[in-house]
């Protein structure tokens, strides 16, 4: 399985998602939602999930959905997967790249 890296921006996105989810729906839902995102990252890295090419935003960028969030990633050297952002579906994606 290729190596998986999560950028500082994506980590910040995850912290914001976790904070908002906990404040709104509680700790159990936060853990469940962040767990679903972590599972999706594993599926992307293993090739189980193939994302949609997002060249309209940036060349070499792919995305896939996890509930209300879109995970943006690219494949780097040695087939390394780099998660760049995790953005809510209502956000202006291009603005965040």
Number of domains: 1
Poorly predicted segments: none
Helix/strand class: alpha+beta
Helix content: 25-40%
Widest beta sheet: strand line-up: 1-5-4-3-2
Taking the sheet with the most strands, its summary is: 5 strands, mixed
Return the CATH architecture: 2-Layer Sandwich
CATH superfamily: RelE-like
The average pLDDT is 94
| CATH class bucket | Alpha Beta
Helix and strand string, N-terminal first? EHHEEEE
What is the CA–CA distance across the termini?
27 Å
How big is the Rg? 13 Å
Strand-residue fraction? Answer: 25-35%
The number of helices is: 2
Indicate the CATH topology.
Answer: YaeB-like fold
Task: Characterize the overall form.
Answer: globular
- State the total count of DSSP E strands: 5
Report what the structure shows.
With 97 residues, the chain is of the alpha+beta class. It has one domain: YaeB-like fold. It is built from 2 helices and 5 strands; from the N terminus they run βααββββ. A 5-stranded mixed beta sheet has the order 1-5-4-3-2. A hairpin with an 8-residue loop joins strand 2 (52-53) and strand 3. The longest helix is centred in the middle third of the chain and has 20 residues, at 27-46. It is globular and about 40 Å long. 20% of the residues are buried.
């Amino acid at each position: 399985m290729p190596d998986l890296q999560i950028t500082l921006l994506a980590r910040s996105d995850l912290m914001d998602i976790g904070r908002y989810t906990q404040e709104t729906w509680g700790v159990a839902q936060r853990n469940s939602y962040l767990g679903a995102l972590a599972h999706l990252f594993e599926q992307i890295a293993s090739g189980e999930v193939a994302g949609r090419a997002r060249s309209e935003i940036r060349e070499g960028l792919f995305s896939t959905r996890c509930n209300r969030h879109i995970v943006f990633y690219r494949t780097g050297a040695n087939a390394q997967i780099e998660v760049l952002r995790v953005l809510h579906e209502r956000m202006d994606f291009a603005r965040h790249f």
